[in-house]
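> call design_seq(struct)
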């Protein structure tokens, strides 16, 4: 397959060591970077993807998994973006295993948040019958990133949000000491408040959320 070598070689050619150090530092040095800024990375990636369109489309899952084994973070981003485009409307029931693997591999907020909203969220739109078991498994997991994904997967649902489900997950994790869980609860509630602010205010009022979760949930509701 030509796509991955071509992508890696091109990224290596346009890499920027100074940017790479800054990017790695921003991500707490969890990952190495080529040092390619987002706009340039996406423009280059788009052209290489276009030149290898058939290969990527026919092998999207395998290509994404291989990209996820690479060292540089930009290649992980490319993997996620490929799946967002190629799998929409074409998910298979077993793709939940792929999504779980991505959520628990090279995990940090930047990848997990995108996967939660655009992959897990879309998968569960296409397989709504899988919501109860999937959310229960992710929310009860010992893996914090799976917990976070269960809280965040409805971020794009707006009026289709199952608020009862969201409340249940938030209550389950409301005493968590983990920053990323407290933040996720607040973010999910703040997002739903754009659709139903009164419901969110009432929920926050009657539940003993952590200060960070409460602050984030009510951030855009000045009268709360």
């Amino acid at each position: 397959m030509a796509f991955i070598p071509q992508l890696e070689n091109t990224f290596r050619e346009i890499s920027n060591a100074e940017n790479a150090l800054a990017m790695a530092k921003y991500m707490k040095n969890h990952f190495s970077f080529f040092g390619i800024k987002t706009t340039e990375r996406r423009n280059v990636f788009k052209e290489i993807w276009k030149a290898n369109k058939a290969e990527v489309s026919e092998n999207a899952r395998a290509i994404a998994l291989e990209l996820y084994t690479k060292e540089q973070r930009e290649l992980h981003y490319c993997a996620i973006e490929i799946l967002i485009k190629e799998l929409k409307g074409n998910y298979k029931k077993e793709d939940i295993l792929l999504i779980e693997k991505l959520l628990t591999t090279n995990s940090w907020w930047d990848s997990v948040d995108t996967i939660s909203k655009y992959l897990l969220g879309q998968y569960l739109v296409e397989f709504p019958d899988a919501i109860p078991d999937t959310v229960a498994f992710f929310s009860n997991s010992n893996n914090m990133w799976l917990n976070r994904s269960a809280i965040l997967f409805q971020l794009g649902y707006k009026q289709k949000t199952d608020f009862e489900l969201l409340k249940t997950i938030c209550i389950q994790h409301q005493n968590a000491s983990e920053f990323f869980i407290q933040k996720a609860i607040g973010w999910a509630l703040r997002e739903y408040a754009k659709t139903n602010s009164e419901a969110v205010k009432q929920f926050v009022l009657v539940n003993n959320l952590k200060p960070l979760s409460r602050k984030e949930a009510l951030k855009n509701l000045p009268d709360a």
